[in-house]
Design brief:
There is one protein chain. With 183 residues, this protein is α/β, with parallel strands linked by helices. The chain has 5 helices and 7 strands; from the N terminus they run βαββαβαβαβαβ. It is 34% helix and 16% strand. The strands form 2 sheets. The chain has a 5-stranded parallel sheet, sandwiched between helices. Helix 5 links the parallel strand 6 and strand 7.
Length: 183
Amino acid sequence: MAEERLAREPAAPGGRPAWLSSRPKRLTEISDAPSDARLCTGIGEFDRVMGGGIVAGSVTLIGGDPGIGKSTLLLEAMNRISQRAGTVLYVSGEESQAQIRLRAERMGIDAKELYIQSETSFDEIMAAAKQLQPKAIVIDSIQTMYMSQLTSAPGSVGQIRETAAALMGAAKQSETPVLLVGH
C-alpha cells in the first residue's frame, strides 16, 4: 500500500481550499436566488426528482446498475437543456464520440449546443469547460476519471474521491451544475 498525495490548490486562510471558504451570512442577508436558478429539462419525472430542475452549482450523483438507461436519460436531459439554455458539455469516459452520436441519432437528437467529449483526464475536462462555459456538465462516469497528480488507477477510491471533490469545487465556483454518473 502506498499513500497518495495530491498537490492541493492554494488554500485560503485556515488551510482550506479557496472554493470552500466563505464568510458566514445571516439568512436575511442572502439575496434571493434568481428564478432561472434551476435548469428544467421538460422531462416531468426527472425535474420532479431534481426538486423542480437542476440547481446551479449543484453536484448530483445519478447511480444505478449498468444498462438501466442513465446515459440515455442524461443525453436526453442535456439535449433539452441545450435547447432551452445554451451550451452543455457531456463527457463520456466509457464511450466514444461516435457511439454517443449513434445513440443521439436513434433518439432523434440533433442539438447544436450539445458538446460531446470522450475523455478521462480531469485537467482536459476542466480545460474544455473553461473554454465552453457550459450551462451544465455531465460526467459519465465518475469511476473512469483520473487526476494526473495521483498515482493510483482510475476507479480507485482515491481517484474517485479527489476527482469528485474537485468537480464539486468547480461547480460551486462557476455555479455550473454537474451530474455524475456512477455504477
